[in-house]
């Protein structure tokens, strides 16, 4: 799914109105009906609900007025509160006129705000994509009042006070919604940790925005769901053999951290790799051969950490980092690997300690071969770049980093973001908080290594599929283990089923 900016959303609305020959208030009616149906599915008519709808002067307020009409006609006790303004949008005015006279509709006044009980249902229709500056004055006062009320707040399109695709000043007033319901496509604002306490849970409802316009619009950000991945993961051919899916090399493990190598190796095998060789220090030999008999062990001459790079000729892809340690001789191995990878046409996946080595030897970033895939969490990413002021800035750093180094970079988080050399970012939709557990990242590395070794997949598709399947495997595992009980090995067990769902 494409993520549109505020301007692009407006243009999509206009394109739909033009293509279908409808009036803008008809499109608003679709949005309001979809929102009302969604809300009424959640509010039982059997329990009396005090529903307060707070409307601003633009089309977000127009949506709120139309929702008030729908709820009233369905039998809910609704009260509407209007924010006074110098001008109101035409579709606000149309829906103001359509509001049945029985619905109580009152202008808000400073210092005389209505009391809203903690049991009330509040619909926040003050501001949406048309917010042009941080809230101040009466609007800010209303927002603080709603946040203090502890009522359940449902925001239409955006929690009021939040910009669609830019940060707002940290002290500015923003509605803290329990649910945000948008239309057709997700917004960037929904996906960032700094906005989680405002957005709450979110959902988007279809309103039939013009598909041709959306298809032809170039965007900076995408949201990756199952539909987005259709056709990207081909069925294994009938006459396939282990060579078809590539031979991968995993450089991982050091004394006390051989488990990371085991997890990554298992994930790589369950990720469908043809052959896997693991370069590990001597201390890992017996552990690896016992825990992962399907992998070949290529033991390093050193006992406790990897010190020598093996011959790269046999391999289609190499993964380096899980449990590797940061010894100087290990750093040397990374340095050689980077320099030889391009010549050996080797796809690279770089994680964990290998990223930390890059963080302390930033000059090595210039040696990254094209299309290398890095998988940092935000702290590791900071070591490769600079501290970010906020989540939006971090995304800009990600975009710059990938363009400068012609690489792919998986910035791990609740909505993991994949940066690409071409510029667009891809936000993942799978995964759960249970996956914040030791070894989860090693599993991702192993899975990505398998997909990068698969010669049928482009670097972009391998990365998208790997990130999505990793999260989905975690979701499937959590259904059995619960989120707290989830461990990295559980994710590995569900990689196969998660990938099977993606075959098309
Ligand atoms: N277009 C369509 O067909 C559809 C649109 N839809 C809905 O429309 C919403 C977008 O509507 P919108 O563009 O009218 O913007 P909206 O967020 O209501 O606010 C604009 C008003 O607020 C004012 N204002 C801004 N900032 C302010 C501030 N800090 N403090 C005070 N005032 C401020 C601003 O005034 P100005 O900036 O000109 O001073 C203007 O008067 C969208 O989120 C969705 O809900 C859906 O129905 C689907 C179909
Ligand atoms: K709103």
UniProtKB/TrEMBL annotation:
Pfam family, any one: YjeF_N
SUPFAM superfamilies: Ribokinase-like, YjeF N-terminal domain-like
InterPro entries from the UniProt entry: Carbohydrate_kinase_pred_CS, CARKD, Nnr, Ribokinase-like, YjeF_N_dom, YjeF_N_dom_sf
Binding annotation for AMP: 412-416, 441
GO BP terms in the entry: metabolite repair; nicotinamide nucleotide metabolic process
Its EC number(s): 4.2.1.136, 5.1.99.6
GO molecular function terms noted in the UniProt entry: ADP-dependent NAD(P)H-hydrate dehydratase activity; ATP binding; metal ion binding; NAD(P)HX epimerase activity
PROSITE patterns for the chain: YJEF_C_2, YJEF_C_3, YJEF_N
Binding-site list for (6S)-NADPHX: 59-63, 128-134, 157, 260, 323, 377, 442
Limits of the YjeF C-terminal domain: 225-502
Comment on bound cofactor: Binds 1 potassium ion per subunit.
Residue ranges constituting the YjeF N-terminal domain according to the UniProt record: 9-215
CDD domains: YXKO-related
Subunit structure: Homotetramer.
Role of this protein: Catalyzes the epimerization of the S- and R-forms of NAD(P)HX, a damaged form of NAD(P)H that is a result of enzymatic or heat-dependent hydration. This is a prerequisite for the S-specific NAD(P)H-hydrate dehydratase to allow the repair of both epimers of NAD(P)HX.
Name of the protein in question: Bifunctional NAD(P)H-hydrate repair enzyme
Species whose genome carries this gene: Hymenobacter telluris
Lineage, top ranks: Bacteria, Pseudomonadati, Bacteroidota, Cytophagia, Cytophagales
GN (gene name): nnrD
């Amino acid at each position: 799914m494409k993520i549109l900016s505020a301007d692009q959303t407006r243009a999509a609305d206009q394109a739909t109105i033009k293509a279908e020959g409808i009036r803008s208030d008809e499109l608003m009616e679709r949005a309001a009906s979809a929102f009302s149906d969604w809300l009424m599915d959640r509010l039982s008519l059997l329990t009396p609900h005090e529903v307060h709808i707070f409307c601003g002067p633009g089309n977000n307020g127009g949506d709120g007025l139309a929702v008030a009409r729908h709820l009233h006609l369905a039998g809910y006790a609704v009260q509407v509160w209007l924010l006074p303004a110098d001008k109101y949008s035409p579709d606000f005015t149309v829906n103001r006129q359509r509001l049945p006279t029985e619905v109580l509709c009152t202008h808000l006044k400073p210092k005389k705000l209505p009391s809203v009980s903690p049991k009330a249902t509040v619909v926040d229709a003050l501001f949406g994509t048309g917010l042009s500056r941080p809230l101040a004055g009466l609007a800010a006062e209303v927002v603080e009042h709603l946040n203090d009320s502890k009522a359940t707040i449902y925001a239409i399109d955006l929690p009021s006070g939040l910009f669609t695709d830019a940060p707002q000043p940290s002290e500015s007033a923003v509605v803290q919604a329990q649910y945000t319901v948008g239309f057709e496509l997700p917004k960037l604002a929904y996906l960032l940790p700094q906005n989680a306490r405002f957005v709450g849970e979110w959902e988007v409802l279809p309103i039939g925005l013009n598909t041709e316009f959306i298809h032809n619009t170039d965007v900076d950000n995408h949201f990756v769901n199952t539909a987005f991945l259709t056709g990207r993961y081909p069925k294994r051919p009938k006459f396939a053999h282990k060579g078809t899916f590539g031979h991968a090399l995993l450089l991982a493990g050091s004394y006390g951290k051989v488990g990371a190598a085991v997890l990554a190796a298992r994930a790589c095998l369950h990720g469908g790799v043809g052959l896997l060789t693991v370069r590990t220090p001597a201390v890992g030999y017996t552990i690896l051969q016992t825990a992962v008999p399907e992998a070949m062990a290529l033991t390093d001459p050193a006992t406790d950490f990897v010190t020598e790079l093996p011959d790269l000729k046999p391999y289609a892809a190499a993964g380096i980092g899980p449990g590797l340690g940061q010894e100087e001789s290990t750093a040397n191995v990374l340095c050689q690997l980077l320099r030889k990878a391009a010549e050996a046409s080797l796809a690279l996946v770089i994680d964990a300690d290998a990223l930390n080595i890059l963080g302390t030897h930033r000059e090595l970033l210039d040696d990254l071969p094209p299309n290398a895939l890095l998988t940092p969490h935000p702290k590791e990413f900071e070591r490769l770049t600079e501290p970010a002021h906020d989540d939006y800035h971090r995304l800009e750093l990600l975009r710059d980093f990938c363009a400068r180094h012609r690489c792919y970079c998986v910035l791990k988080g609740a909505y993991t973001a994949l940066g690409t050399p071409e510029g667009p970012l891809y936000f993942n939709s799978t995964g759960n908080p249970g996956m914040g557990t030791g070894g989860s990242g090693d599993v991702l590395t192993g899975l990505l290594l398998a997909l990068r070794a698969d010669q049928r997949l482009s670097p972009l598709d391998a990365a998208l599929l790997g990130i999505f399947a990793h999260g989905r495997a975690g979701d499937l595992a959590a259904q059995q283990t619960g989120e707290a009980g989830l461990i990295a090995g559980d994710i590995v067990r569900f990689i196969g089923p998660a990938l099977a769902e993606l075959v098309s």
